[in-house]
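re: that chain from earlier
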Amino acid sequence: MPEIRTIAIIGAGTMGHSIAAVSLRAGLKVNLIDTSEAVLGTAGVKVRKLLSTHVNSEPHAALANPDAFRSRLYTYLSLEEGAAGADFVIEAVPEKLSLKQEIFKKLDALCPPDVVLASNTSGLPITSIAAGLQHPARVVGTHFYMPADIMPLVEVVRSDYSGQEAMDTTVNLLRFLKKKPVVVNKDIPGFIGNRLQHAIAREALFLLDQGVASARDIDDVVRYTLGLRFLHTGPLEQRDLNGLDIALNIAEYLYPALEDSKEPPAVLKEKVASGMLGLKTGRGLFDWSGTSQEEVIARKSEKLAKLLDLIE
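^ sequence. v structure.
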């Protein structure tokens, strides 16, 4: 792997500042770039909080002083200044294809050809982001999961143009960051995780819409059966454990009854139309009134971190 000492992260929002914390913990220098001075200032505070909160459980004990991490964080309002001298670039701006394409066109001209340019997108086509660039072989996808400073897995997505060297460099860097990279060999919408997540969510919304069970009971079925099992056995391995003949027998009678609509379910459209968007508006499929969005997310992040410590 080429020596990587400085990572430029474009976008200091939810994903960007979390990826910055991960990189700082590994001893790397981080250039955090955003067009908003206010966002950069808030991001700096959030990064310091993440480092102070989780640093004691990190494997880089030699860097256990949060101040040592903070001294490696630099913020920039200018893409040109922030990307200059970076050994690896991760873009983490909002999910707008045109915006990402504009940024990558600039990066392609700014960064030396051997610098990998990675897009942190949850489903936009990496091939479309790389198309038309002078050096498209160095463009890959890196789909971090929220919260990025805790969730171990990152999908590394190969576009139609991605070179093997760029893929290998990205995988090795993520391993250095103590992440678990998985390679997505086909640039399909949603990659792997979001396709699986939305397949389950579509069926769950269908069950709710049909009055089969309450939202809480449907969630509890997942939490206390599939959720526990998925901690140690994936859906494909589980088919082997059950027996593929049994899996086939069940699939033959169950698949025809599963929800397979190509349109979002009515219950989802109705909630959005009425402004009931979930935690951020106080009501959605559940009643979140009287709760703080920040507190709920922080509590769940803390539980995730404890769970990972336990299973590892």
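The CA atoms of residues 162 and 240 lie 33 Å apart.
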